[in-house]
Amino acid sequence: MADTFPSDSVGLVTPQTLHFDAPLTLDCGRTLPRYDIVYETYGQLNANRSNAVLICHALSGDHHAAGYHSEQDKKPGWWDNAIGIGKPIDTSRFFVVCLNNLGGCKGSTGPVSLNPDTGKPYGPDFPIITVRDWVNSQARLSDALGIQQWAAVIGGSLGGMQALQWAIDYPERLRHCIAIAAAPKLSAQNIAFNEVARQAIMTDPDFHAGHYYEHHVIPRQGLMLARMLGHITYLSDDSMRAKFGRELREGKINFSFDVEFQIESYLRYQGRSFVDRFDANTYLLMTKALDYFDPASEYNHDLAQAFAKVKAHFLIASFTSDWRFSSARSREIVKALLDNKKQVSYAEFKADDGHDAFLMPVPHYQQIFRAYMQGIAL
């Protein structure tokens, strides 16, 4: 393995599946009678089971956070720069678990799964899932793994929202909560971006009201547009200028509506590649979960009240160029925690990568992240 993969890599990993027969009641009022959760683990669980870390993924993420599924893999998992030997989430210290959330399209029960009542894929009949539903299903996964308390629950973006929900709903079951590039709720502008993305998918002629599986098609154009729109919001103006500027593919203007600028080529490539690996119904579900997240809504819209009973220590991190989940939103979380005299560390990192910075190996970010994780007692 050392000859095949970098020395700090977790190496070859194999996804695992847990089946649950106990019904899961959801916020929407419906019940999943049974379901599967696909997950991966890295590192070793220690004797007293005190070193387990849960990674919660963002909108288009999945269970494959680190390592490789085969020696032919060109790319490792989506957070490989943060998980491994000597990395911020050090697998020589921690036992790391990452799962594909319910409603996903990478093996956990979701729209592409067979509905036991019909024998056909759920499609649009799969229930709308909330962040709380995910956290409840993750708690059942931790029970099945024999983990009564996480050393830390960690996530970026939508994953950070799940980490916050964990701290609120299961205060005794995590010692540290790390929320990176997250927010206490989406702004109206963010909800608007999500709605445009959903409309792009739902108005595609091949969407068929979500039953496109039965027609053996996918709403390719709509999903591609949704991803292109989303990708623009994940980047910053500075990062796009640095990568592409106004560079022309052929060095001249062709006076056409075909691809001329490099940024156009890049966005189309991102859109096309996303269509080949992600399900449109799952995209709709994930964006709705983002829209609905608002833990303060159950506490008279007082975020401090929502955090009143949390017991975890917190690391809240943000990035200067992230305009979709700005640093101001992270500071709202910090203030609400401090209003309750909770233990919280906050770091704002200078980075030009926009919202995607939480996935990048930004040196100062990784340094602080690593230092915080090293301070977690096991």
From TrEMBL:
InterPro entries: AB_hydrolase_1, AB_hydrolase_fold, HAT_MetX-like. It is an enzyme of class 2 (transferase). The record marks R324 as: Important for acyl-CoA specificity. Pathway: Amino-acid biosynthesis; L-methionine biosynthesis via de novo pathway; O-succinyl-L-homoserine from L-homoserine: step 1/1. Its main location: cytoplasm. It is found in: Cytoplasm. GO terms for biological process: homoserine metabolic process; methionine biosynthetic process. Its EC number is 2.3.1.46. Belongs to the AB hydrolase superfamily. MetX family. Homodimer. Transfers a succinyl group from succinyl-CoA to L-homoserine, forming succinyl-L-homoserine. This is Homoserine O-succinyltransferase. It comes from Beggiatoa alba B18LD. The lineage of its organism: Bacteria, Pseudomonadati, Pseudomonadota, Gammaproteobacteria, Thiotrichales.
